[in-house]
Design goal:
alpha+beta; Nucleotide Exchange Factor Grpe, Chain A, domain 2; 3 helices; 6 strands
Length: 201
């Protein structure tokens, strides 16, 4: 092979290598361009997922805050009702201690009337004392005081305190109040002193 032929062959090889390098470079650039085109799509999906996640978290937080808000409203409403009830009870039974302190005086009144009823000479005085007693008991009733009925009543631990058990003359008297030793009283349907009674057995 002549020197000239060698030069022609080398030029042809060099041209093919250059072309292949250019093609390879173009192919690489196209691949890179393709990857660049794909990346924004992946990036966009990730952003959507991120936004969706933030939205879900925000909805959960809103639901939690709403639940807490509703609970606090319910608690406050219960507190308000309880406070109003306690205030009403306080107003209603505010004089309980005072009336409890007066009850022994009421007992003395009743004993005095019983003793005066046995004395014929005290008949006139008894009328005056009776008027005072009725006026006094009337004022107490206006303030919610109520005497616990004991005569012929069934023994009830809610209202009565048994201080003696007495043999009953009849079967029907068993478990009944036979005698009241000390009167019991209620203030606005609340027992402030149990009636002390003797019960048939």
């Amino acid at each position: 092979m002549s020197e000239k032929d060698k030069e022609i062959l080398e030029d042809a090889v060099n041209e093919n290598v250059g072309t292949n390098d250019e093609n390879a470079q173009e192919s690489t650039e196209q691949e890179n361009a393709g990857e660049e085109n794909v990346e924004p799509e992946n990036s966009e999906l990730t952003n959507e997922e991120r936004v969706q996640k933030e939205l879900d978290e925000a909805n959960e937080k809103i639901a939690m805050l709403e639940d807490r808000y509703l609970r606090q409203i319910a608690e406050f409403d219960n507190y308000r009702k309880r406070t109003m009830k306690e205030k009403a009870e306080l107003i209603k039974n505010g004089g309980e201690r005072t009336i409890e302190a007066i009850l022994p005086v009421l007992d003395d009144f009743e004993r005095a009337l019983d003793n005066m009823a046995k004395d014929e000479n005290a008949a006139e005085a008894m009328k005056g004392v009776e008027l005072i007693y009725n006026k006094f008991i009337g004022i107490l009733k206006q303030n919610g005081l109520q005497k616990i009925e004991t005569e012929g009543a069934d023994f009830d631990t809610d209202y009565h305190e048994a201080i003696a058990m007495v043999p009953a003359f009849e079967e029907s008297q068993k478990g009944k109040v036979l005698d009241c030793i000390q009167s019991g009283y209620m203030l606005n349907e609340k027992v402030i002193r149990h009636a002390k009674v003797a019960v048939g057995e």
